[in-house]
Amino acid sequence: MRNVDTMPFSRFLRQVLGQGRDLRMFLYNISRQVPELLDDIEFPQVGQRFSRRFVFTFFGCAGSTTPLHYDIDMGQVFHTVIRGRRRVRLFAPDQSRALYRHPFTVRSYVDLDDPDFASWPALARARGYEVVLEPGQTLYMPPGWWHEYHYLDAGIGVSLRAPGATVFQHLQGLSNLLVLSPIDRVANRVAGRRWFAWKSRRARRRAEAHDQEKTG
Ligand SMILES: O=C(O)CCC(=O)C(=O)O
C-alpha cells in the first residue's frame, strides 16, 4: 500500500498504459481526487443505494495482480472494466477456511497459480469461479466474496459500491473496520513477522479443523 513515486496523473497514465511501467494504483477515489469525473458516470438503476463518496478506480500494467481478498466494509461491488482485459477469480464466503484466511484480516496468502497442496491441503477442496472481463463488462461481487484480479493487459477499472444487503453484513463491515483492522495494524507494528507467523498458524489450524468436521 506504500507510495513508490509521485507524479502528475497524466504522466502516470502515459507510463502505465503507454510504456508498460510497473506501477499500480488501487482504490483511487475519484470522488475525492477528480470529482468532476463523477459527471461521466451513470449510476445504474438496479435498486441499489450507490455511494457517490467512494467511487474507486484501479490502474495497473499488464501482469499486475490484486491479491486474493474480500472487501473490508462488506459492501456490494459492481466492478466495470474501462480498458484492458482482466482475469478474476471468485470464491464464496464459505470458502474462507479452505483459502486459509488470516485472522484479523480479509486476506489470503495462498498461491492460486502454483498451489502448494502439501502446505495448504484444504486448498484442494476450495471451489470458485474464474472469468475474463472485457472492457465494458461489469462484474457484481456480493458482500464477503473473495476476489483476485490479474491484469491481462494494462488497464483501468472502476468500482461502484452499495452497502451490504443485511444488518449482519453492516455489523461485520463495522467490526472489520473499527475492531479487527486496528488490532491487526497495531500488532503488525509491534510484532511484525511474529504476528504474521501466528496468523498463518491459526489459519492452518482452522482449515484442519474444518476438514476434520467435513470428513467426520
Ligand atoms: O481492479 C482491481 O485491481 C481490484 C478490484 C477490486 O478489488 C474491487 O473492486 O474491490
Structural notes for this entry:
It is a single chain. The protein has 216 residues and is of the alpha+beta class. It is built from 3 helices and 9 strands. The protein has helices spanning 9-18, 30-33, 167-215, and strands at residues 24-29, 56-60, 65-69, 76-83, 86-91, 128-133, 138-141, 146-151, 155-162. The strands form 2 sheets. The chain has a 5-stranded antiparallel sheet with strand order 1-2-9-4-7. A 4-stranded antiparallel sheet has the order 3-8-5-6, with no helix packed on it. The longest helix is centred in the last third of the chain and has 49 residues, at 167-215. The radius of gyration is 18 Å and the shape is globular. The mean pLDDT is 94. The chain binds 2-oxoglutaric acid. Residues 26, 58, 66, 71, 77, 79, 147, 149, 157, 159 line the site of 2-oxoglutaric acid.
Briefly, what is this?
With 216 residues, the protein is α+β, with helices and mostly antiparallel strands. Helix content is 29%, strand content 25%. It has helices spanning 9-18, 30-33, 167-215; strands at 24-29, 56-60, 65-69, 76-83, 86-91, 128-133, 138-141, 146-151, 155-162.
